[in-house]
Amino acid sequence: MATPTRRLVRVTGVVQGVGFRPYVYRLAQQLGLAGEVGNDGDGVFVDVEGPSSQVLEFVDRLRRDPPSLATIDQITTVPAPPRGHRDFQIGATRASDRTTVPIPVDTGPCPDCLGEMADPDDRRHRYPFINCTNCGPRYTIVVGLPYDRPATTMAGFTMCAACAGEYADPSDRRFHAQPNACPDCGPRTRLVSPVGDVLADGDDAVTDAVARLRDGQVVAVKGVGGYHLACDATNTAAVAVLRTRKERDDKPFALLVGDVDRAHRLVHLGPAAAAALTSPARPIVLAPRRGAVGVAAGVAPGLVDLGLMLPPSPLHVLLADGVGRPLVMTSGNLAHEPIVHDDDDAVSRLGPLVDALLVHDRPIAIRCDDSVFRQGDDGDLQAVRRSRGHAPGRLPLHGPGDGILALGGHLKNTVTVVRDGTAVISHHVGDLDHPAARAGFRQAIEHLLDTLEVDPTLVAHDLHPGYASTQLAMDLGLPTLGVQHHHAHIAATMAEHRRADPVLGIAFDGLGLGPDGGLWGGEFLVADLRSSRRVGHLHEVAQPGGDRAAREPWRMAVAWTRASLDPDRAEAEAARLDPRGRDVLAVCRSAITPATSSVGRLFDAVAALLEVCHTATYEAQAASHLEALADAATDPRPGRVDGVVRLVDGIGVLDARPLVARVIEDRDRGVAPAVVAADFHASLARATVDLAVGLASWHDLSAVALGGGVFQNRRLVALVVAGLRQAGIDVLVPRLVPCNDGGLSLGQAAVAAASRAWRADVEEPDQATSHDRE
């Protein structure tokens, strides 16, 4: 008989809470191996012993065929003397001084659980909290690591004998499924009135909620990471009532559909989008609608895209199947407030907005909005918001970073913590204007630092002193590193693509503070992960009214008209745009009015000139409506760039004044607005490509990285990428990380890690900046 072989195997990555130990147990049983598998603070350890060929096959199958929810970072093996193991066991979790295992993410219901939930003979028939090691809540119920039931919000639910038997059986798919429960021992639903009175309990609560939704009522639904507000998306009156109560005039609502076939009936889905919809993450996917689809016009007024998701939890499955029609499923909050996740808070904040609340008694440890991805013209997906199902995200960084806390920006905030060279990106925190949002911001920081066991030694932040994130950075009493806004955008894209060598960064967004104190937003930067230098920008114009200009696009139209036309025509155009137009024109002439290079504000101006958005009720509304208008063009032009690109004192300037003048001229000649909008997109894209190609050649760069919220524009991205690639330039496009401000914290962390690696003494000054560092 051959001498047995023994290997000590270490598996790191997302390997806890995903069924890895029972998978290893079954694999060892199948191959006739002995030993032990268990969890500890670093991941999974395996002591495996048996015939050499079977041990080698065991390790190989761990590498190439892990459980579906697992993400393996590394597998290491060390030979050891055989010990004569007789069987294979799942050992107890080993205590560790410091936990390095990643936090698992929330996942939607798996096919096995859905099958049981639909089976009238199964003890979990129609149970809204069914789960197993292949699905269910993770991040939103975790209060500590390693990931075991006592460290989750399920700790207060004692398993019944049947559930405990499953939990302890290595051959069962619910072996050590930490949220494991059933109707006899687990969480329960209740339907309550707007003031908190119980109306129904258990399955009756779900049935009553379905009936109310079918009847046109608005119902708050407690989901995985917070509350949704739901109504029948085909009911025009119900959608209008929800808009009024939520104080959300025009911003599009997301839709919940029961399965991917129903999604295909509403929107044009490519393979990547369909795969994302059905993935365990269950994100919202934005895709072009199929003509006059069967949902109320008020769901997404003026837009081509609809945002769809499949049920992220078993409770949502019951609602979608019960109603049988698309449901509006929007975040449970008032406009500009964070999503509600606390039950008492839900009654006080959401009660006035709804006819009833469908609640349950499983606490949510950390609020977590839905993730959002957009389908591009090439069929690929681009992250708009990474949150539930994708948070916390993990990305290896260049440089041995550790103890870095990056606080992001003020809008679409996220937080990133760097530990052992890996950036861990939080869920979407949101805009920090509201006190509740700032409290959620602090909670997100504490939750990440506590669960990762990190004591920060450096805080990276934006340069803008008015951001709540910057103010907190100053208050923490730690060394700080200020990272210029647009450098952070480009660094985030570089980090995603694992690039550290210099690139030409093109950062187009609404606004970011430049190191000169200017209002930047259309920037061409020579950048690496440590520093950046401005080598080009959009022609600057006045931004009258400061932040009001973002909410009132007609103001930027006045500013661009003044810059692009002769004085008499500019005055006439200003008066046409708004009764206050001449007064704003005078403000634009004032020396104290700040100037901006913002491409976002340029889109606002053109949208107002073409009368698609005079006043915006949500961020990027004008640009979104302008893109939708351009998509309606049946015979778009290739774009015109005469006189748009020029060089001033060695700095490239993208001078959009001829583009704006042509928009006004074409509009006044009666050219179809869709054609004018499409021509503007094409011309801006061609000018961007021309300037980028020239600057890349001038600075001997072979790659361009895109960043900033303007590059959420599907049409613009497609044109710019095609033009650059045709010129032989490698283009780095953000896909996994949002190009908007949701990616800033990652960019800040990447810059901080690279800066630390560069500084031999690893001593940071109290104040530093990443821009123009020598």
Largest sheet: 11 strands, mixed
* Helix content, binned percent: 25-40%
Number of strands: 31
Given the C-alpha coordinates, what overall shape results? globular
**What is the straight-line distance between the termini?**
68 Å
Our count of helices gives: 23
The chain-level mean pLDDT equals 93
Radius of gyration, rounded?
27 Å
Report the β-strand fraction as a percent range.
Answer: 15-25%
The spatial strand order of the largest sheet comes to: 7-6-14-8-9-13-10-12-11-15-16
Low-confidence stretches: 760-766
Secondary structure category: alpha/beta
Quickly list its features.
774 residues; alpha/beta; eleven-stranded mixed beta sheet; seven-stranded mixed beta sheet; 31 strands
How would you sum up this structure, described in words?
The chain has 23 helices and 31 strands. It has an 11-stranded mixed beta sheet, with helices on both faces. It is of the alpha/beta class. It is globular and about 90 Å long. The relative contact order is 0.09. Helix 5 crosses helix 9, helix 16 packs across helix 17 and helix 19 crosses helix 21. Residues 760-766 have low confidence and may be disordered. The termini are far apart. The chain is 33% helix and 21% strand.
Question: What can be said about this structure in brief?
Answer:
By secondary structure, the protein is of the alpha/beta class. α22 links the parallel β30 (703-707) and β31 (730-732).
